[in-house]
Structure formats: C-alpha cells, structure tokens
Amino acid sequence: MTLKKHGRSLRAIWSWDGSGFYGAHFPEKTALDLERSLCEVMNNNPQDPIIVLQNDSPDVLYSRSAHVQVAVYSKRSPAKETPNEDSAAVVPAGPEATLFVVADGVGGHKAGEVASQIAIDSLASQLHASSSIPGTGLRANILNGIESANASIQALNLGAATTIAVVELNHGQVRPYHVGDTGILMVSSRGNVCYQSISHSPVGFAVESGLLDEDEALLHEDRHFVSNVVGDPAMRIEVGPTIRLAPRDTVLLASDGLFDNLTIDLIVETIRKGPLKKSVKLLADMANSNMQLAPAELSKPDDLTILAFRRYTPRAKSANKLNHENGTAVLRNSLSDSSI
User: Fold this and answer.
1) Exposed, middle or buried: residue 209 (CB in 10 Å: 0-12, 13-18, 19+)?
2) pLDDT tens digit string along 227-254?
C-alpha cells in the first residue's frame, strides 16, 4: 500500500479509500473543521477514515464517540524550520475498539517524518488486511504492523528511523505497546500512576534501575540518545499489560517534546483532572514555554505531540427524585449529557 501525499501543508487529513490513503490538505481549515473530521473517525466503522496529524495543528483537537473522548495536539519544534517529524493517529479497529498512535521520527536522521508516517501507515494497512480474517486479534495485528513498518523503513536505505507508542482500547481495557522513547502514561483521577512506559534509552534504563532519579534524567546530557527504534534490524517491541480503564482514568501518549520539558509529577497533576481538551492545552502551553528557556535549564526544543483519551460516560447528577413505593422516599440519580 502506498502513502499518497501531494505537496505539504500546515495540516493534513489522511483518509482510507480501501486501497490506500488519499490526502486532502486544508491549510485554511479551522480547528473546528478538523475536530469535525476527527469526530467522523471516532464514530465510524473500522474501514472508514483515520486521521493523521503532522506538522502544526491549529489548536488542541477534541472529539468523542459513544465510548471514548480524545484530544490531540502537534507542533513543530521552535528551534527548526524543517518539517515536524511527529505523526499521530486515531484508528478505528472494530466495535468499541480503537488504536491511538504517536510516532516520533528520529531527529538527526534522514526522512524522519517519512518514517513516522510509514509506521502509522503500516498499522492501518495491517488492520485493514486482516479485517476479513476471522480470529485475528488486535495484539497480533499491532505487532505485525510494527514489524512491517520496521522492514519498510529499512528498505528505504536512507538511515531513517522512528519511535512509536500504540495503545489499544478494546471494550474498556487498554494495552500499551512501544518502541523507543515515545512515552505512554496512564493515571487515575486521584493522580495514581497506573502505568508508565520505560524509555528505551540509556538514561531511561538508568532511571528504571535507580541509578538516576527523574529530575537528574531531565537534565542529563545524554537524554536525547535512543537505543531502540523502528527501522533497525535489532528493533524490539515492548508489550505492556492489559489494564481496565476506569471511568475517570486518563491515558496519555506523547513524543519526547513533552517528557523532556516537563516533570512526570507535573504531567500527572495536569492531565488527571479537568476537561480533557483543557488539560492537554495546559500541557502543551507549559512544554512550549519551557522550550524557550536557556539550555542549562529544563529545556529541550523538539517537536511536540500529545494524544490523550478517557472513557466517555455521562456524568451522574443527583435529581432528588422521590419514589414513594411502599411509602418510602428513595433518592435516585438521573444522567446528564455533560462529559467528564
């Protein structure tokens, strides 16, 4: 399957036409236009369009389906004029099943933006190809999609590479997959970290082993080195546990433009509460602000992509409705249409 792209614009919507992607570039479109496109993705069947963000999104894009709400943001590094090498996608994968993906083309390598596109392209292609094969599970399709991307990127012979983070949401349960340092974080509304991916890098492994704490890692001179990427013969895919997604849990996927500029504690405290779109906007504003700091401070200018999602359930409001059955007053709840 070929990723068809005609020119480059500030924003692009990629749609699935059954045999490949067709690109429709809308530099004049507003955030509301893009949100409507994302809404179509969230509410359609597995063969219908996906959305891929690359380069700058005009604002945080937000949408929801009957089961999940999602917010997406992407912006090029303020320190460069070359393309944004991050890509993000929301891919319908069946009834009550969706894949959320962030890929970060490796900076300093040729065609990083192409590599991140190929990673998402391969995942979507694998899902489509297997949709007619009974008994094909999402886990196998995700692994095969990433393996296919690895082979395709190597076949370019350009030295291109990308990291990738994928979270599968399937009937209220999530499962994370990642290669490299694109991060995945799952937090409860109380701020408990239910899951945090380990960065595939020397600094990431040092933090995991206790040799460095997270504050030291953020200022470490080697924090930009990545030891595992898609596009390398030695690539390995880390598969996380299956976790039930509680109604107010938040799952966040982000490129290192977020994790290299904000502490985990600040990210958790920001994303755990409030409207999802507003929380993602706050994270983006803080990360972008820190990118303007002096290099000696907590600052690493980079492409920044954030994708966050929660289950969508109407909020229960006490209606103080009385049921006088058997002469007893019973307090009941009614459901509002407001989002969490």
Assistant:
1) exposed
2) 899 999 999 999 999 999 999 999 999 9
DSSP one-letter code for 3: B
For the beta carbon of residue 3, count every other beta carbon within 10 angstroms. Answer: 18
Cα–Cα distances in angstroms (integers) from residue 251 to residues 122, 171, 191, 234, 300, in the given order: 23, 15, 12, 28, 24
- Alpha-carbon distance 181 to 200, whole Å? 5
Structure tokens at 260: 């290299």
CATH label of the domain that carries residue 101: 3.60.40.10
Whole-angstrom Cα distance, residue 304 to residue 314? 31
What one-letter code names the amino acid at 81?
Answer: E
Which of 108, 119, 107, 113 lies closest to 152, judged by CA?
119
CA dihedral (118, 124, 125, 130) positive or negative:
positive
- For CA atoms 270, 271, 277, 280, the dihedral sign is positive
Asked if residues 146 and 97 have their Cβ atoms less than 8 Å apart, the reply is no
Q: State the total domains in the chain.
A: 1
* Residue 284 domain boundaries: 12-314
Express each pLDDT in 39-77 by its tens digit. 766 665 444 446 666 656 668 888 888 888 999 999 888
135 close to 78: Cβ distance less than 8 angstroms: no
DSSP 314: P
